[in-house]
Design a protein that fits this description.
alpha+beta, 6 helices, 7 strands, 48% helix, elongated
């Protein structure tokens, strides 16, 4: 009678799973993530970026912007360059606000309620007004806002310090503190 040996069967199954999963990871990295990262690094306004994080419903681009970068242009360029890979996935920027300072962080925190209220009521014109009033109260602070079909782009400047914020226009996705 045939006696099954468990150890060789388990080792063969583990090796097969390792080869298949490893092959898929290498393919994913070479065919999708690496070309996206290379394309993003060449966009004007991006100081540095990491490999994109690709989920089933979203692609997140961790990046650091240069001072004075046009946030809307950066986002639109990334969407355009990643369209073939993204397909129906959402594009999200994870911007490291390394150029921000405590004053800008405090000003953004103090405006969160009014911004969130404007977003909830879809009164988008109140956002630039709120941020302009905030900037007028503090000398040297500049607030730049822009909008498109999917996001609101906010840039706060204080001398050489810059804070970038991207807010999705879909109210259910609004998590103001996680995008700040």
């Amino acid at each position: 009678m045939f006696k099954l040996r468990i150890m060789p069967i388990l080792l063969t199954a583990a090796a097969s799973a390792l080869v298949l999963f490893g092959g898929w990871l290498i393919y994913h990295q070479v065919a999708f993530a690496a070309p996206l990262a290379k394309a993003v690094d060449q966009i004007e306004g991006i100081a540095s970026s990491e490999t994109p994080i690709m989920d089933t419903d979203r692609i997140t681009f961790p990046l650091t912007l240069t001072a004075g970068a046009d946030l809307k242009h950066v986002y639109e360029t990334i969407v355009k360059q990643s369209k073939s890979v993204a397909q129906s996935r959402d594009i999200q920027l994870d911007i490291a606000n390394t150029g921000s300072n405590a004053k800008l962080d405090q000003l953004w925190s103090s405006s969160l309620f009014k911004v969130a209220e404007a977003m909830e009521h879809k009164n988008y014109s109140a956002i630039p007004e709120t941020l302009k009033a905030l900037a007028d109260e503090h000398s040297g602070v500049e607030a730049i806002t822009d909008i498109d079909d999917s996001n609101i782009y906010i840039t706060l400047k204080d001398g050489t310090a810059t804070k970038y914020i991207v807010l999705p226009r879909v109210a259910a996705q609004l998590e103001v503190s996680s995008y700040a």
